[in-house]
Amino acid sequence: MKHSSLTQLAFLLFSTSLMTPALAANNMPVQKSPNGIELPAQYQDWRLISQSHRVDNNTLRTILGNDIAVEAARNNNTHPWPKGSILAKLVWKQTPEEHWPSAIAPDKFVHVEFMIKDKEKYKATGGWGYARWLGLEQKPYGLNTDFAQECVACHTPVKDNDYVFTRPAKLP
Amino acid sequence: MKHSSLTQLAFLLFSTSLMTPALAANNMPVQKSPNGIELPAQYQDWRLISQSHRVDNNTLRTILGNDIAVEAARNNNTHPWPKGSILAKLVWKQTPEEHWPSAIAPDKFVHVEFMIKDKEKYKATGGWGYARWLGLEQKPYGLNTDFAQECVACHTPVKDNDYVFTRPAKLP
């Protein structure tokens, strides 16, 4: 095989690996959200934006961001968030820490949900694309594209904060 | 200047940047902990291990790890944690989210504290080096090396969990 063919093969393998859908805990490919959004690859490795504890439904949440979102958060450039920002909210049921019961810690993984900023592409849902995957098996949420109207309705009270509840945690 | 000298200069500048101590919010260099531990560089960019909410002192905590710790956590290889693991716990005072008050969110940054695994180096403190820096100005905690005995005393109830309270959050 000539050098150029080897390079082409390496490129093909590399491209294919980028196109491979994310795998769930059971090693099955994760399906797209009904609105066509694909699960962002390796979101578990994204950097910290903030966290929260919802005492109304007993869940803990970590908010991570892709590089665009994290740079925006750390430079106080979130009004509005720049195009391409993705926020991931990871949600767990809560449990007391065994040896420090007044510390509430994550238990069962509930879901991960995303907001993807693109004013033009997601014009119908306020400039953000919404998607959610349930459980460790990462099953897409929603029967059809209408599910995103739920998201928009819930986020409309924070329209003046670019539809985002999360305020980036202060960091040194 | 010859090419080799330029390369040497570039290397020197690169090495110097690695040796520069971390800067606090006021751009002052961050001082070492009294036990000689230096603030790990760019710990704010480390990946997620877990989070918690201490309802006894109204603080929220995110636990991040360096690469060794994150690989260990995700491969369930934390009994014991491997040498070189570093856990960072970032702590904030809590506040209700403005538009969803039953969601408790981070407010003022309180401190960041670290556990660094090295059985030999930190034999006197159970195989972990402890350090903490207070506030956005990242002032080292402790008047002298004795401070770490506080840490050990508090962590001794979880000796069977390699002195670590945190259990890595389940992730897809």
Would you kindly provide a written description of the structure presented here, covering whatever features stand out?
2 copies of one chain form a homodimer. By secondary structure, chain A is an alpha+beta fold. Chain A is 20% helix and 31% strand. Chain A is built from 3 helices and 6 strands. A 6-stranded antiparallel sheet of chain A has the order 1-2-3-4-5-6. The radius of gyration of chain A is 18 Å and the shape is globular. Chain A starts with a helix and ends in a 17-residue tail after the last helix. The model of chain A is unreliable at 9-18 (pLDDT under 50). At the A-B interface, strand 1, strand 2, strand 3 and strand 4 of A face strand 1, strand 2, strand 3 and strand 4 of B.
Write the layout of secondary structure elements.
The structure is a homodimer.
Chain A lengths: L2 H17 L27 E8 L4 E7 L1 H8 L11 E12 L2 E18 L10 E7 L4 E2 L6 H9 L17
Antiparallel strand pairs in A: 1-2, 2-3, 3-4, 4-5, 5-6
List keywords for this structure.
homodimer; 172 residues; alpha+beta; 6-stranded antiparallel beta sheet; 31% strand
How much is the average pLDDT of chain A? 90
- Determine the N-to-C terminus distance of chain A: 53 Å
Please give the radius of gyration of chain A in angstroms: 18 Å
Q: Oligomerization state of this entry?
A: homodimer
Q: Quick gist of this model?
A:
Chain A contains three helices and six strands. About 6% of the residues of chain A have low confidence. Helices cover 20% and strands 31% of the residues of chain A.
